[in-house]
């Protein structure tokens, strides 16, 4: 089968790109011709990820950065402009989650999640938009959200509220950035088999409650968790000209979970 090269000559930045959905997305975009930069706070994991991808013949580079820190984000985008002279695709994927009961949550726990998911999306989207505008590039931005942004779940008030805010950022930035030819869309994930699905050392998709409720009873219509590569395919679609008439959309990638009750 012929290899699709939809992103030949383009440059992409994937935040939180060392593992899970970010890694799969970097791999997918690079396999379709993009030069990809992945960023994250853990240099060891990021460098290992970039090395694995380059060993596959893909053009992938890692630069350390913290999306919750405005100065760090400025450094990331200065590197993008200095090294590549352009940015065509931004994938806001960085996230954080630790289960915590609402009444026991302190400001530090709340802010940690909001700093990465909400502030990080704001900092990176603004910087990307400014670079794309300056270079006259009709860029694409894809935000990796969650179906939890519109739902309630115990021990997740901070995460769910942050993802809800991310969804509104997707819609509002889509409205404003379209004037510059920049399309912003998002994906809302269900249960995806990534390192974030391991909570307190337990892989939640393998627990009895998950298998009983979501698999055996069919709460997830496809009766399984998703794979990062399945999400990466949808992100690549939104980043491509195949989605040229999509703007401000947030596509559920959840195996049908969001339509059951």
From TrEMBL:
Record flagged with keyword NAD: yes
UniProt superkingdom: Bacteria
PROSITE patterns: ADH_SHORT (PS00061)
All copies of domain Ketoreductase, residue ranges: 10-191
Translocase listed as a keyword: no
GO terms (BP aspect): bile acid metabolic process
GO molecular function: oxidoreductase activity
Keywords, alphabetical: NAD, Oxidoreductase
Family listed: Belongs to the short-chain dehydrogenases/reductases (SDR) family.
Stated name of the protein: Short-chain dehydrogenase
Organism (species): Paenibacillus nasutitermitis
Lineage of producing organism: Bacteria, Bacillati, Bacillota, Bacilli, Bacillales
């Amino acid at each position: 089968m012929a290899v699709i090269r939809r992103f030949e000559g383009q440059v992409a930045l994937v935040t939180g790109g060392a593992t899970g959905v970010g890694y799969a997305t970097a791999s997918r975009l690079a396999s379709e011709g993009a030069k990809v930069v992945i960023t994250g706070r853990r240099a060891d994991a990021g460098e290992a990820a970039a090395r694995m991808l380059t060993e596959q013949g893909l053009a992938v580079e890692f630069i350390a950065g913290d999306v919750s820190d405005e100065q760090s984000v400025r450094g990331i985008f200065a590197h993008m402009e200095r090294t590549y002279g352009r940015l065509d695709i931004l994938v806001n994927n960085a996230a954080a989650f630790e289960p915590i009961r609402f009444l026991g949550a302190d400001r530090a726990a709340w802010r940690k999640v909001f700093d990465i998911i909400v502030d990080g999306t704001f900092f990176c989207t603004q910087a990307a938009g400014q670079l794309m505008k300056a270079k006259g590039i009709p860029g694409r931005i894809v935000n990796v959200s969650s179906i939890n942004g519109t739902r309630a779940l115990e021990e997740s008030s901070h995460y769910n509220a942050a993802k809800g805010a991310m969804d509104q950022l997707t819609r509002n930035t889509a409205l404003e950035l379209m004037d510059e030819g920049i399309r912003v869309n998002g994906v809302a994930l269900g249960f995806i088999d990534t390192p974030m699905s391991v909570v307190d050392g337990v892989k939640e998709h393998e627990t009895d409650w998950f298998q009983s409720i979501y698999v055996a009873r069919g709460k997830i219509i496809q009766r399984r968790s998703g794979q990062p590569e399945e999400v990466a395919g949808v992100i690549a679609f939104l980043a491509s000209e195949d989605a040229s008439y999509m703007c401000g959309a947030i596509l559920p990638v959840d195996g049908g979970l969001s339509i059951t009750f």
